[in-house]
Amino acid sequence: MSQGVVRAFPPEVLEIARKIRDMEIRGAGRIAKAAAEALRIAALKYEGESCEEFKEYMLKVAELLVSTRPTAVSLPNAVNYVVSQLKKPGIDSLEKARSLVVSRASRFIEYADQALSKISEFGEKVIRDGDTILTHCNSAAATGILVLAHKKGKDITVYATETRPKFQGYITAESLLREGVRVRIIPESAVRSIMKRIDKVVVGADTVAANGAVVNKVGTSLIALAARERGIDFFVATETFKFSPFTLIGDIVPIEFRAETEIVDEEMLARHPKLRVLNPAFDVTPPDFITGIITEIGIIPPQAASIVIEEMYGHPVMHESLKAVEEDFAQ
Ligand SMILES: O=P(O)(O)OC[C@H]1O[C@H](OP(=O)(O)O)[C@H](O)[C@@H]1O
C-alpha cells in the first residue's frame, strides 16, 4: 500500500457524484450505470504509475460514489461489480488493474441496457389490449414495458402519479406521450379513488430485499395497499442488480430522508423554528402485496428473491457490519 496518499479525483468523476447526490442523475438503474461510467473515467484518467496506489485510489472513488445516495442497492452492486476483482491475486500491474476496471465497467453498462430490453419483453406480456395501468414516480424499467406494449399495438391508458415532492411523474408522462401513449396525471392522494379504473399497477424498484419486499419511491406501499383492496395485480419491474445481497444476512435497507426544503420553503421554516418536516424518499412494500417481479431473467414471485440473490451473488460472505459486531465480541 502507498502511504495513504490519494490522488485528486478527475473533475468528471466529482461531477457525476454531485449529480447523483442532487438527483440530476436519478433512477436506480441510471445511478448504477453512471457510477460504472465514473469508475471507468477514473481508471482511464489515473496519472500515477503504481498498481497499489491505483487500487487504493479506485477504492476511494468507489466509496465516494456509494456515499452519494443510500437506498438504491444498484449503486453498491454496480460499484462492487466493477472494483471487487481488484483484490484478487494476479492483478499485479497497473495496466492489468486499469483494463480490469475499464472492461468490467463497460460490461456492467452493456448488461444494464440489455436487461432493460429483456424486462420490457417479459413485462409486455402481462399487459392486455385495453388495459389501464397505474405507475408511480419514474422508472425506466416500468416505462419500457408500457412503451413496448403500446408499440405492439395494445391500446393502453397510463395513469401516472405526480410523485411529490420532486414530480418525477412528469418525466414519466412526457416520455410516454413522446411515444404516443395515452396518459393521465393524478396526484398521489387520488390513487385510492381512481383504483376502480385500474387493471394493473406497474412500478419500478430501488432495492429488492431477500424476503421479496420492494423498496421504491415513497407512496408505492400505499398504492400496493389500494390495489390489494380491489384485488388488482401489482407488478414490480427491476433488473436483478437491484436485489440486495446484504439483506440475505439481515441488513436493513436504509431509507433516504431528503431535505426539509423539498417539502416546505425556507421562509415557512424560518417563521416556525419548531416545525420539523419528514421527507422520506422511499417506502417498503411487503412481498404479499406483489403479484410478480419482472426481471431480465423472467417474472419471479417475490418469495423467490433470496434464490435470485444466491444465484447472482453466491452465498453471502460476512458483511462488514457483522464483522464489526464480531470484533466487538472478541474484545
Ligand atoms: O431504475 P429505474 O427503473 O429507472 O427506477 C427505479 C426507481 O428509482 C427511482 O428513485 P429516484 O427517483 O432516483 O429517487 C424511483 O423510485 C424508481 O421507481
Strand order of the largest sheet: 3-2-1-4-7-9-10
Q: What's the N-to-C terminus distance?
A: 27 Å
Major β-sheet, in short? 7 strands, mixed
Strand content: 5-15%
* Ligand species: 1,5-di-O-phosphono-alpha-D-ribofuranose
Tell me the count of domains: 2
Given the helix and strand composition, which structural class is it?
Answer: alpha/beta
Looking at CATH, the homologous superfamily of the largest domain is Translation initiation factor eif-2b, domain 2
Number of strands: 10
Q: Which residues form runs of ≥5 with pLDDT under 50?
A: none
Order of helices and strands: HHHHHEHEHEHEEEHEHEEEHH
Write down the CATH topology of the largest domain: Rossmann fold
What's the helical proportion of residues?
40-55%
Keywords: Carbohydrate metabolism, Isomerase
Active site: 137, 206
Catalytic activity: alpha-D-ribose 1,5-bisphosphate = D-ribulose 1,5-bisphosphate
Function: Catalyzes the isomerization of ribose 1,5-bisphosphate (R15P) to ribulose 1,5-bisphosphate (RuBP), the CO(2) acceptor and substrate for RubisCO. Functions in an archaeal AMP degradation pathway, together with AMP phosphorylase and RubisCO.
